[in-house]
Design brief:
By secondary structure, this protein is an alpha+beta fold. Helices cover about 30% and strands about 15% of the residues.
Length: about 100
């Protein structure tokens, strides 16, 4: 994937004219989910630009500027102060496509 992701993060790769992030958000929305936490690091500013078109959704952005925290670390940082202890949440990885 290195050649494909030199200038853009993986979630912004396109599949049939839709970014992987768009596909993940649309799929989650079809389940009734309308609040999102998006974790970003590599070219995070492009993710910020992409999510600006979703003004009707509540999107929290967790940016790992200093270092990559890994999957669990990114989730822990992202949900801090947003998800309460007893709440259930869904984790989607836009590197995969869900139908």
């Amino acid at each position: 994937m290195a050649d494909l992701t030199k200038e853009i993060p993986k979630p912004l790769l396109k599949f049939h004219n839709y970014t992987l992030l768009e596909i993940a958000i649309a799929r989650a929305y079809s389940f009734g989910i309308d609040e999102f936490i998006i974790n970003a690091h590599y070219h995070y500013e492009k993710i910020v630009t992409e999510i600006s078109k979703y003004s009707s959704l509540k999107i929290h952005l967790s940016i790992e500027k200093e270092k990559i925290l890994g999957t669990a670390g990114g989730i822990k940082k992202g949900i801090h102060g947003i998800i309460q202890k007893a709440e259930t949440f869904l984790v989607l990885n836009p590197d995969s496509i869900f139908f």
